[in-house]
Every structure is written in structure tokens, then in C-alpha cells.
Design goal:
Elements lengths: L1 H16 L8 H44 L4 E6 L4 E4 L1 H7 L3 H4 L13 H11 L6 E9 L2 E14 L2 E10 L2
Antiparallel strand pairs: 1-2, 1-5, 3-4, 4-5
Length: about 170
């Protein structure tokens, strides 16, 4: 650690330049002051570099969030029980829903009765394979049906398994 290295250097200087009573001479005080100043400048440079990297990281994160949220296809990320943990605005627009209608809800709540079996077997299949799986699903929303093609697969993050789902409107 740099602080420990600095302390060690400082103690060595004091030992080398102090008198037998460990009094600090003006010369020693100047050397210590210079060492502290150099250490301070190094820390300022490191802090500025950390701030620059943090800004760069925030910009990239914002960029990737916008790619997800503003994609021309609908995206949803669900757990293996089908509970939506993330959804993009395109899918919300396709379904004409608010985020509160979808986030932390199961997609099965939105899938029409005619597509419930397909939806069930889709999620059952995820427990067996990591391959992409395609299904056409029908969603009943406010007395209106919306047909969406979905291509989905599973992935692992932080020792949890999630389902990535892409939705494309069937014309």
C-alpha cells in the first residue's frame, strides 16, 4: 500500500537525519515537507485519474442502458419463474403498458389463455437447454390481442439464472 510505503520512507528519513534525541532539524523538516508535498501531488494525480475513469464508466453505462431501453425490439429479463426483473420501453409500448404493470410481475399474467401452454413449455425448456428458443405468443391487453414472436435464452449472472427475451411484433 502506498501509504505504508510513504510512512516507512518518512521514518527512515527521520532516523537518518534526526539527532540522538530525535529532535527534528530545519533541514529534516524541509525534507519531510517535500516528501509530503510529492506524496500529495501523486495522490491528486491518482484521484483525477479515478474521477476520469468514473466519468468514462458512467458514460458507457448510460450508453448501454440507452441501447437496451431504446432498441427497436422489445426486451425483457426474467428470472426462471418468469418474473420480470428488467424491461425496455419498446416492449412496454408494444404492450401499451406502464412499467409498474410488468416489472416484478410474471409474463404469464399478460399472456392470453390461448398461449399459456406455449408460455409454460417455453419456461420449462429453459431448465433443460441454454440454446435460443423461439415461440409466438399472444398477449391479451385491454380487450385487444397482440401477437409477438419471442426469441429467448438463459444466462447466469452473480450465480443467478435469468432469461433474456426479445420480442418482435408479428404483422
Amino acid at each position: 500500500m502506498k501509504v505504508e510505503r510513504f510512512k516507512s520512507r518518512l521514518m527512515n528519513i527521520i532516523k537518518d537525519l534526526g539527532d540522538e534525541n530525535n529532535h527534528l532539524s530545519p533541514e529534516l523538516m524541509d525534507i519531510i515537507s517535500e516528501e509530503v508535498s510529492i506524496f500529495h501531488q501523486e495522490l491528486e494525480i491518482q484521484n483525477e485519474e479515478l474521477r476520469r475513469i468514473q466519468r468514462e464508466l458512467e458514460n458507457k453505462q448510460s450508453h448501454f442502458y440507452s441501447i437496451f431501453d431504446e432498441a427497436p425490439v422489445g426486451y425483457a429479463i426474467c428470472d426462471l419463474d418468469g418474473i420480470v426483473v428488467r424491461v425496455n420501453s419498446t416492449l412496454l409500448d408494444m404492450l401499451n403498458l406502464d412499467i409498474s404493470d410488468v416489472l416484478n410481475h410474471t409474463l404469464s399474467e399478460l399472456v392470453s389463455e390461448d398461449s399459456q401452454d406455449d408460455y409454460y413449455f417455453l419456461f420449462k425448456e429453459f431448465k433443460k437447454t441454454e440454446n435460443n428458443i423461439s415461440k409466438d405468443l399472444l398477449f391479451n391487453l385491454n380487450q385487444k390481442s397482440v401477437s409477438l414472436k419471442t426469441v429467448s435464452n438463459v444466462y447466469e449472472k452473480d450465480q443467478n439464472i435469468f432469461v433474456r427475451m426479445v420480442f418482435i411484433k408479428n404483422n
